[in-house]
Amino acid sequence: AFSRATALLEAVGGNQATPLEDRQYLAETMPYPNILVKLSEDPNPSVRRRVAANEAGKSWLVGRLAKDHDQDVRTAALLNPRTSWKIRLEGAEDPNSSVEALKFLSRLGSEANVKDTETVLASMVRRAVAVNPTSPEALARHLAADASPEVAHAARKRTSTSVESGKS
């Protein structure tokens, strides 16, 4: 009965005749990977964005959505707690990442929001944000005071380069 129910939900979610609101609801609330995979391929970015934000999504699926062509979908995936460190680092390096995503990534580990064992990974992500040429100048200046010497150094180097080239 369970497999029939999920197969039915998968068929409903993958059917473009299903009202958008229903596909969005399924994308937001479903804990079942097979349904989320189907919804992650929806042509409507609002459905894919909800799948990317769904904390029940598998990290590989969220990672795939972090590379979506729609910036809002990518941002939702980068903000999802299930996102892997590898994908976070790639998002921090990506010049097409949104300011919202870069701000979020720049705070990882600096606000006690990661485990002690993830401190180095969070520092790597913040450093990548600091050197990302599309990060806002104010964000780089903020990271110049980061507790991690590597992050602070990279941010200071970037902000001093910007000042020297007249970008400040």
Keyword list:
mainly alpha, elongated, 168 residues, 11 helices
Question: How would you explain this protein's 3D organization?
Answer:
The protein is 64% helix and 0% strand. By secondary structure, it is mainly α.
Secondary structure topology:
Blueprint lengths: L1 H12 L6 H10 L3 H7 L5 H9 L5 H7 L5 H9 L5 H9 L5 H8 L12 H13 L5 H7 L5 H16 L4
Helix pairs in contact: 1-3, 2-4, 4-5, 4-6, 6-8, 7-9, 8-9, 9-11, 10-11
Ends apart, CA distance between termini: 63 Å
Largest sheet: none
Tell me the series of helices and strands, N- to C-terminal. HHHHHHHHHHH
Number of H/I helices: 11
Principal-axes geometry comes out as elongated
Strand content: under 5%
Q: Report the count of strand segments.
A: 0
Question: What is the radius of gyration computed over CA atoms, rounded to a whole number of angstroms?
Answer: 19 Å
